[in-house]
Design a protein that fits this description.
Bound molecules: zinc ion
Radius of gyration: 33 Å
Strand order of the largest sheet: 8-7-6-3-9
Mean pLDDT: 80
Low-confidence stretches: 388-449
Largest sheet: 5 strands, antiparallel
Pfam family, one: zf-C3HC4
InterPro entries: Znf_C3HC4_RING-type (IPR018957), Znf_RING (IPR001841), Znf_RING/FYVE/PHD (IPR013083)
Strand content: 25-35%
Keywords: Metal-binding, Zinc, Zinc-finger
Organism: Durusdinium trenchii
Protein name: RING-type domain-containing protein
């Protein structure tokens, strides 16, 4: 039978050599210590100018943000050595010196951020907005010892700073000067608004759930006129960190449907229909509002896969939407649908300055380089048609050998959601960006022209 003494030894802290209080298990070697012992160990080592290493002797660095204490260890002690634990808690409460209040009203082990750039000599060692953790007051009585998450000089040592250089972290995990984007159209008053997708940077916080954002000048609308940049207090849920979404799209980006979107057996959004990215719906889908021309005129929101949309931009001046064009060379889609040279089509929209989205007759809608298209005018049409028909006979038979096999063909996915059930290839509208094939041969065709 094991004595209570022996059991108590199992729960002994390697620093204070007593029963562990709020036991924390370190990930470096799995040894456990009292939370307060670890904090004192970290603070003492850091204030002596070192990098705190594991008190268990494994020599690994100890994290400044300690893990949660172990509930299993605490419950085991409550079960196995209840009296010793009760005594230990009582002793600790009597000894306790309250050292959590620090200069400037900050709390020891609390999260903070740098309220300004922190300099050492003439170089910045901590950027304004950098997050960190307060270890406690410095012995000099006017500085606090802070461990910043990152230092500009790469050092892992703590920094002694005056309280004026610190601030409480901003709500929502935002950082000072972080670039953010408006997730909604923000109405400031009856005639001032910040449009959806406006970009700005965070300049401060008014407490609670609000941050102050300086939006870029042109984006803040006063009626129809833009006004100079102006700080706006927004709720943290009205903005998001600016970043690329799934598929490389961004919030408020103008897009177009890259294929007809089908729900059930009804086409709800036609290929080429313009829309705006509203949000990231999931890891794989984006919420897009499409400008569909329906009678009920309600906005059509769909959660689409990135391959179901293309970026949208203004068309080149000589190729307005609806203009008839003809493919000058064979075009290849990722779904292996071929658009033969000479096929006529209609411009739907622009993708980027060199790429337009075209609906080809009896075939797929394809994003094609402007240089692979010829604009059709009435008088030119019949003449060009004859020439291309002539040539296509010599070109067509050879396609589909080595050129095709080098292109990755992705089968249409069977994934379905209640929001958007679309199927690539279902009705011949399937496709993204085309790849012109066999350029040498195409050059030959063009030069023959
Ligand atoms: Zn201890
Ligand atoms: Zn260790």
């Amino acid at each position: 039978m094991t004595s209570e003494e022996e059991v108590a030894e199992l729960f002994c802290c390697g620093i204070c050599e007593d029963l562990m209080l709020a036991p924390i298990t370190l990930v470096c070697c799995g040894r456990s210590f009292c939370k307060e012992c670890l904090r004192l160990w970290i603070k003492t080592n850091a204030q002596q100018g070192g990098i705190p290493r594991c008190p268990g002797g494994c020599t690994k660095k100890v994290p400044f943000r300690l893990p949660q204490h172990s509930i299993a260890l605490r419950k085991a002690m409550e079960q196995l050595v209840p009296e010793r634990l009760a005594n230990r808690i009582k002793e600790a409460a009597e000894e306790e010196i309250d050292e959590t209040d620090c200069l400037g009203g900050f709390k020891a082990w609390g999260d903070i951020a740098a309220s300004r750039d922190i300099l050492y000599g003439s170089s910045i060692i901590v950027r304004q907005g950098s997050p960190g953790i307060v270890l406690g007051n410095c012995d000099d009585g006017c500085h606090l010892t802070v461990k910043f998450d990152e230092r500009e000089d790469g050092s892992e040592l703590c920094v002694n700073v005056v309280p004026e250089a610190l601030m409480l972290p901003l709500p929502g995990g935002f950082r000072l000067h972080q670039k953010v984007v408006a997730l909604y159209e923000l109405l400031l008053n009856s005639d001032m608004k910040v449009p959806l997708g406006s970009v700005g940077h965070i300049i401060g916080s008014l407490g609670g759930d609000r941050v102050t954002v300086l939006f870029e000048p042109a984006k803040l609308l006063f009626g129809d006129h833009s006004i100079p940049e102006y700080p706006v207090s927004v709720n943290i849920r009205e903005v998001a960190a600016q970043r690329l979404l799934v598929g490389g799209f961004s919030i408020a980006q103008r897009v177009q449907a890259s294929m007809s979107l089908v729900v059930g057996n009804r086409v709800v959004v036609h290929a080429g229909c313009r829309g705006t990215v509203l949000a990231e719906f999931s890891d794989t889908r984006l919420t897009v509002v499409f400008e569909t021309e329906t009678e009920e005129s309600s906005p059509s929101c769909f959660n689409v896969l990135p391959l179901e949309i293309l970026p949208w931009c203004d068309l080149p001046a000589h190729l307005p939407a609806g203009s008839p064009v003809r493919a000058l060379q064979h075009l290849m889609s990722p779904c292996a649908i071929l658009v033969h040279a000479g096929t006529k089509g209609t411009i739907l929209g622009g993708v980027d300055p060199a790429l337009v989205f075209v609906a080809f007759e009896n075939g797929p809608a394809v994003a094609a380089a402007v240089s692979t298209l010829e604009q059709l005018s009435d008088e030119k049409e019949s003449e060009a048609e004859e020439k291309l028909l002539e040539k296509s006979e010599t070109v067509a038979p050879d396609i589909g050998s080595s050129d095709l096999s080098s292109i990755d063909v992705e089968p249409p996915s069977d994934e379905e959601t209640p929001n958007s059930a679309t199927e690539a290839g279902n009705n011949g509208f399937a496709c993204a960006v085309s790849t012109p094939i066999n350029s040498a041969r195409v050059t030959a065709v063009l030069s023959a022209d």
